Amino acid sequence: MKAILLKRAGRAKGLVLTEVPIPIPGQTEVLIRIHATTVTRGDVVLRKLPKLLTRLVGETPKSTLGHEFAGVVTAVGAMVDRFEVGNRVFGTTTGLTHGAYSEYLCAPQDGILATIPSGITFEDAAPVPVGAMAALHFLREGGVVSDKRVLINGASGSVGSFAVQIAKQLGAHVTGVSSTSNVELVESLGADEVIDYTKQDFTEGSQRYDVIFDAVGKTSPKRTRSVLAEHGMFVTTQKLRQERLDDLLAVRDLVAAGVVKAVIDRYYTLEQIPEAHQYVEQGHKRGNVVILVSGR
Q: Measured on CA atoms in the order 160, 130, 285, 234, is the torsion positive or negative?
């Protein structure tokens, strides 16, 4: 099978297309034919880190990157009872030594893995596990409920675009922060207000927010203190989180109900992953960058 191996940490040219054997699932594993994966900001960070530093940030070093995926189960281990051949599934490679930048992947049946809702394409499902789960986790950490005033910094990115939709579903009053070119996008996701950061610094406004969610890790509690309501919460993607299957199932339900969808900026092929990494590294992507690994 084809896979993109990280031959050397650092620049994107260290990602090399290689032929490797198709893995064989263990007794409690499933073999998945990958149809779509993504390039996230986290993948770019991990590409640059030596293996020792990767362990220090709580990640399992991988010779093949790719944190989230969508595909079809093509084989199952003898003790697998949660999935069967033909299931359309999506999930993450957390804890695995092999990522999703490949045509096939073995994943444990008790990992962060679930079936894809009917009617949802592989390319629309692939960005959900990382971005939507992160958004849900931090919104819950911030205590977002109905009628809370929530500001989402970086509202046009992967986590931010999911956060706008989920916060609205929770009944919050949502203010998104984005650049001029993304104002209409954030409005289309349901934001009640959008602040164009090229024209206005939200930290200098008069509005107070119950929750400030920094979805891009570019601000701080100190800088936002003046616009945080009394007893308000500041949450950020800079904080490590633990992935939970329950969170994946929760966002799957939102996707199935049609109230949350992935924003997709660009598509690349497996062979074009180095170019996709270079694009994401520029820091201007809208929503998600999807890698099309095989046909639908």
A: positive
